[in-house]
């Protein structure tokens, strides 16, 4: 049989793939895409190398389960050796199902630690009823996890933030914080002791949600405390969803823009030396003295 005949014979078979077969192919594509995205981010940002000890922060949400799953897959195939250690912080929220993560991690043979710290009571004491608790809660959680990493010598802390988290944080900072800043894929903590990595930085939230549903990860909801997501973050998310519906691919374009910054086309003097362009410099500014330039604005009358 000629190659052309083979192709013709093959064609109807492919076309009439059963729904189960189609679902399997889609599932393979999804897994491959996520692994490629994670691998690419790890490579682009030098996230993990030979001998690294990676602490994988596991909250029990879809993102962190997906991150762990993919890192385990990459670890098994990687030519470099690195360690993965899952860590969950039990914050003592009411009804936290504390058996779920240990059971899951034991079944997968993943080394893990469950830290216990009652940040829930601290947050309850400090945030007035009806106000969002997430910001303080996350700060306390980060503190506990970073401290543990430092004590135990983990030189990488992997967090499960994805591309959509990064873009929404960018808009929150832009709209409400007056600065151009998102969440970097790799970050050195302020005290220089921890390197935080976000291996899902290139992954779409939709893909992660589909992957988590397919793998039936035993998800623990992050609202056991009764707190609501911050209103501003919700608004930004809604805006991004509407954009994406109307102009598919817009979130990806924004993310790419964040990785393709042109400081000379913005206005931050700390990033680009505008004053020296064209030979201008400090002495020339003397002619502005007396015009109120550089002085603090006068307080307006009440
Ligand atoms: S929903 Fe509750 S547990 Fe989750 S970050 Fe907010 S305050 Fe913390």
TrEMBL record:
<feature type="domain" description="tRNA(Ile)-lysidine/2-thiocytidine synthase N-terminal">
    <location>
        <begin position="54"/>
        <end position="218"/>
    </location>
</feature>
<dbReference type="InterPro" id="IPR014729">
    <property type="entry name" value="Rossmann-like_a/b/a_fold"/>
</dbReference>
<dbReference type="GO" id="GO:0000049">
    <property type="term" value="F:tRNA binding"/>
</dbReference>
<feature type="binding site">
    <location>
        <position position="134"/>
    </location>
    <ligand>
        <name>[4Fe-4S] cluster</name>
    </ligand>
</feature>
<comment type="pathway">
    <text>tRNA modification.</text>
</comment>
<dbReference type="Pfam" id="PF01171">
    <property type="entry name" value="ATP_bind_3"/>
</dbReference>
<keyword id="KW-0411">Iron-sulfur</keyword>
<keyword id="KW-0808">Transferase</keyword>
<keyword id="KW-0460">Magnesium</keyword>
<comment type="subunit">
    <text>Homodimer.</text>
</comment>
<keyword id="KW-0067">ATP-binding</keyword>
<dbReference type="GO" id="GO:0005737">
    <property type="term" value="C:cytoplasm"/>
</dbReference>
<keyword id="KW-0694">RNA-binding</keyword>
<dbReference type="GO" id="GO:0000287">
    <property type="term" value="F:magnesium ion binding"/>
</dbReference>
<dbReference type="GO" id="GO:0016783">
    <property type="term" value="F:sulfurtransferase activity"/>
</dbReference>
<feature type="binding site">
    <location>
        <position position="225"/>
    </location>
    <ligand>
        <name>[4Fe-4S] cluster</name>
    </ligand>
</feature>
<dbReference type="GO" id="GO:0005524">
    <property type="term" value="F:ATP binding"/>
</dbReference>
<keyword id="KW-0479">Metal-binding</keyword>
<feature type="short sequence motif" description="PP-loop motif">
    <location>
        <begin position="59"/>
        <end position="64"/>
    </location>
</feature>
<dbReference type="InterPro" id="IPR012089">
    <property type="entry name" value="tRNA_Cyd_32_2_STrfase"/>
</dbReference>
<keyword id="KW-0004">4Fe-4S</keyword>
<keyword id="KW-0408">Iron</keyword>
<dbReference type="GO" id="GO:0034227">
    <property type="term" value="P:tRNA thio-modification"/>
</dbReference>
<keyword id="KW-0820">tRNA-binding</keyword>
<keyword id="KW-0547">Nucleotide-binding</keyword>
<feature type="region of interest" description="Disordered">
    <location>
        <begin position="1"/>
        <end position="23"/>
    </location>
</feature>
<keyword id="KW-0963">Cytoplasm</keyword>
<comment type="similarity">
    <text>Belongs to the TtcA family.</text>
</comment>
<comment type="function">
    <text>Catalyzes the ATP-dependent 2-thiolation of cytidine in position 32 of tRNA, to form 2-thiocytidine (s(2)C32). The sulfur atoms are provided by the cysteine/cysteine desulfurase (IscS) system.</text>
</comment>
<dbReference type="GO" id="GO:0051539">
    <property type="term" value="F:4 iron, 4 sulfur cluster binding"/>
</dbReference>
<protein>
    <recommendedName>
        <fullName>tRNA-cytidine(32) 2-sulfurtransferase</fullName>
        <ecNumber>2.8.1.-</ecNumber>
    </recommendedName>
</protein>
<feature type="binding site">
    <location>
        <position position="137"/>
    </location>
    <ligand>
        <name>[4Fe-4S] cluster</name>
    </ligand>
</feature>
<dbReference type="InterPro" id="IPR011063">
    <property type="entry name" value="TilS/TtcA_N"/>
</dbReference>
<keyword id="KW-0819">tRNA processing</keyword>
<dbReference type="InterPro" id="IPR035107">
    <property type="entry name" value="tRNA_thiolation_TtcA_Ctu1"/>
</dbReference>
